[in-house]
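User: Let's play a game. I give you a shape written as C-alpha cells, and you guess the letters that built it. Ready? Here's round one.
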C-alpha cells in the first residue's frame, strides 16, 4: 500500500475514533470511575472489537466487489448516507452528549468487558467501515494489505482512547474538553459530511 494511500486511511480512521459518541463516553466513564488503568483497558478492548468488525468488513468487501458490483455500489451509497447523517447529528449536538458521562466505581475487568461489548454491540460500525474501506479495498488486494488496514483501524482507535484515558488522569483535561465540546462536534460534523461526499465521488487513488 502506497504511503499516501495509507495516510488517507489513517486520517479517516482517526476522524472516526475522535468523533464524540458512546465509545468516548465508555472511556471517560471508566477513567473517571477507576483511574488510568480501567480507562486504558476499556480503550484497548474497544479497539479489539473495532478490529473484529474491520476484519469482517475487509473480507466481505473483496467478495462483494467481485460477485455483486451493483450491490456493492448500493451498499457504498448507503454508507455515505450514514456518514452524512452522523455529520449532521454531530453539528446539531452542541455541548452535550458523550463529554458529560456519569462516573461510577469500576475495575479493569469491567472495563475490558464493556469495551468489547460497546464495540460489538454497535452494528453501525459495520456501516461505517463499509463506507470507509470501500475507498481502499480492491479485489486483487493482498492479504498483507488487508492486514495493514485492519491493524491501522485497531492501533488508531486504541491509541486515541488510551491517550484520552491518560489525559483524563490530569484534572484539567476534562473541563477543557467539556468547554470545547461544541467545537469538537462541529469540526467532526463537517469532516464526516466531507467524507460522505468523497465516498460518493469514488475510490481514493
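Assistant: Ready! My guess for every position:
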Amino acid at each position: 500500500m502506497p504511503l499516501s494511500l495509507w495516510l488517507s486511511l489513517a486520517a479517516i480512521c482517526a476522524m472516526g475514533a475522535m468523533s464524540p459518541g458512546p465509545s468516548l463516553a465508555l472511556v471517560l466513564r471508566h477513567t473517571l470511575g477507576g483511574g488510568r488503568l480501567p480507562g486504558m483497558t476499556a480503550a484497548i478492548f474497544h479497539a479489539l472489537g473495532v478490529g473484529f468488525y474491520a476484519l469482517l468488513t475487509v473480507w466481505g468487501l473483496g467478495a462483494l466487489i467481485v460477485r455483486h458490483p451493483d450491490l456493492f455500489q448500493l451498499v457504498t451509497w448507503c454508507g455515505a448516507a450514514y456518514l452524512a447523517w452522523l455529520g449532521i447529528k454531530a453539528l446539531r449536538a452542541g455541548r452535550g452528549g458523550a463529554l458529560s458521562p456519569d462516573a461510577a466505581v469500576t475495575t479493569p475487568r469491567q472495563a475490558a468487558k464493556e469495551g468489547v461489548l460497546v464495540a460489538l454491540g454497535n452494528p453501525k460500525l459495520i456501516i461505517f467501515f463499509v463506507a470507509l474501506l470501500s475507498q481502499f479495498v480492491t479485489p486483487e488486494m493482498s492479504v498483507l494489505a488487508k492486514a495493514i488496514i485492519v491493524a491501522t483501524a485497531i492501533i488508531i482507535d486504541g491509541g486515541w482512547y488510551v491517550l484520552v484515558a491518560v489525559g483524563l488522569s490530569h484534572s484539567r483535561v476534562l473541563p477543557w474538553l467539556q468547554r470545547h465540546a461544541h467545537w469538537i462536534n462541529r469540526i467532526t460534523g463537517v469532516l464526516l459530511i466531507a467524507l460522505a461526499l468523497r465516498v460518493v465521488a469514488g475510490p481514493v487513488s
